[in-house]
Amino acid sequence: MGPHPAVAAIRLAVRRVLHDVLRDATRGRAAPAGPHLRGGGTEPPLALVACSGGADSMALASAVAFEAPRLGLRAGAVTVDHGLQPGSAGRAAEVVSRLACLGLGPVDSLAVTVGRKGGPEAAARDARYAALDAAAERHGAAAVLLGHTRDDQAETVLLGLARGSGTRSLSGMAAVSGPGGRYRRPFLALDRQTTRKACLEQSLPVWDDPHNADPAFTRSRVRHEALPSLEKALGRGVVEALARTARLSRDDADALDAWTDEAERSSRADDGAPGELDVGRLYALPPAVRRRVLRRTAVAAGAPAGSLFARHIEEVDRLITAWRGQRAINLPGRVEARRQGGRLVIRQS
């Protein structure tokens, strides 16, 4: 008798991703496979699981522990202690013990300090990814696997819609991201219910982070209020539709970015310094491509990407499409955009 359907589903999703990790490590695309062994050999590539102890990441850890040895991969894990709740260090120690019992190794517990930049959710995310990056570098990991599900993807798209973000933001989380394709998300096509069932069937203890139900956090409100209200008003299938929107938007955004690469090169002012663009060439571009060129140029000049919003780019765009002798536009990071005759100049003031 085979495994429960939920267990089979998570294992299949992980197996497919680990096949890709092994292929990429063999081709040298991913991070170094590991230190040399005595006798001239090398250790098999290492895949690390980022595990909070919740159902999604525990299901992921169990599937990686099962599949990795069958593919000739080593499997380890990392849990990050954000220090935001009483007893967090003790919970992190419990997670380490559970991961070790699954047969994963090495298993790290990393304590981080969460700042305030961008709000509590963004600050925690930044601290977490910095810790995961450091762990991957330290162990020479070929990949770090994350337990984000289709439900997480739907929440991300809905948050992007609420912010009035562009196509790239609506594309949600990529299946492969990070430096050298480090981060892999095997569960983006699976729902949260499947991972929880998989844990139940395998008798895996899970920890439900109270922050995930705290209405003080935006994502929590989306999860427990906004999405259920949408499903009640529009019928079931909203989560699937939002996740599908992410896939379609990612394809569109990738195509627009490729177009922007060429447009950026062709829009540079002849004999101009960095940050100087030809207004006539910019004007001839489709708005979606032109605004991408403007955003890239502003970021290259020193504007923080996370602080550069659509309204900033729209104001700069008016220097091209609705020129009436406007003054320079001040952008985040002390970057200034101004029109000088037939040139648009974007650089730090």
Can you characterise this structure?
With 349 residues, this protein is an alpha/beta fold. It has 2 domains: 5-240, HUPs (Rossmann fold, 3-Layer(aba) Sandwich); 267-348, 2-Layer Sandwich (Uridine Diphospho-n-acetylenolpyruvylglucosamine Reductase, domain 3), CATH 3.30.465.60. Helices cover 50% and strands 12% of the residues. The chain is built from 12 helices and 10 strands. It has helices at 5-27, 55-67, 88-101, 120-139, 150-163, 167-170, 192-201, 218-234, 238-266, 279-283, 287-301, 310-321, and strands at residues 46-50, 74-81, 107-111, 143-145, 176-177, 183-184, 276-278, 329-331, 335-340, 343-348. The strands form 2 sheets. It has a 6-stranded mixed sheet with strand order 3-2-1-4-6-5, with helices on both faces. Strands 7-10-9-8 form a 4-stranded antiparallel sheet. α1 crosses α7, α9 packs across α11 and α11 (287-301) crosses α12 (310-321). It is elongated, with a radius of gyration of 23 Å. The chain starts with a helix and ends with a strand. Residues 35-40 have low confidence and may be disordered. Belongs to the tRNA(Ile)-lysidine synthase family. Its EC number is 6.3.4.19. It is found in: Cytoplasm. It comes from Streptomyces hazeniae. This is tRNA(Ile)-lysidine synthase.
